[in-house]
Amino acid sequence: MPIVTPGLRPSYGTSWILWRGKNITGGELPAEAIQRVGRRLFEVLFGSDIAVAFGAARAMQKDKGLRLRLEIVPPGLSALPWETMHDANGWLSTRGDTPLVRRFPASADVLYPSSLQISPPLRILFVGASPANNTPIDIEAIAARLAGEEVLGKLIARKVVSFETLLHSTTDALLDKLAEDFHAIVFVCHGGFDETDGLQRPVIFLEDEDGDRSPLPAKGHLTDWLREKPTRLVLVAACNTAANTDETGVLLRSFAQELCETVPAVIAMQYSVSDLVAPAFVEQYLHLLAAFRPADVAIAEARQSLILPPYQAGRDVFAPVMYLQTDDGALFRKARNWTRIALLAILPLFLVLTGVTAGILR
To answer: Is the pTM for the entire model greater than 0.70?
Structure first.
């Protein structure tokens, strides 16, 4: 699937879009208004020349689809909800034939690994935390549902997927667990910003030994722990972990962007998301990922499922942001079972020879 990378320029960011974009992230607009913002964002990004080229590229690809990857400069424009872009055919980010992802401009010395050839199972680690001094999250119920028959249970039984859980995780427990290798890691917890030495930094909140919240930054922690590991995807179902501004509006690199230093695919939430929709998105996404769907196509299809009843999720559909640092959304590929292939190739020959032998004996 080819890639189109439109350019974003500062002159295109009108005050109306900035104001309305902030209204979306603050949860202040109904679905119809979100659609209007999405249309305006599409018009701004796809100027007349780009729109013509985009239409022509889609026509050439037809059934193959066309990847859209946004490289956003200046960084302040990353705060806008580009995932709401809407054209004449609907929301771009909910269509599997136009998966919409972002790319963080990493330093030139960062080399991202290609897709991983794996012999099943696909190893998934679920990390849950619900600190006592935060709004409770029913991480046990979420983990149980993910492991249940409707999501991953059948694949776990067939040993296509391995699903391990680390509940009420502390930083030390996570570090110990990451001594093992996992292909994908899912965090269900709270996110936000923590002040250290007068500086705000994006974090997720795990638990300390007393069950209270313990901040964990990506940079210098997760980025180091996952370096040289086979982890290709990290999904962070935590509010504001893809947000580029703190509570005071100061521009920062988001938790997701910092994690991009090591991990080729990161999904995180660009604003607060409800405790109904976030687990539902994780369920839908993991089900598709475990079926070896391309990672960017899977997020589009997961969004689409949340638009339909019973969710009809509105703004929460567009909270997940995917940063994909590789050209190919196929993060995982099933390794060929050469022994089985060889046996299947030998079997017809064996049957032919057996038939010849039987004919001679007659």
So the answer is: yes
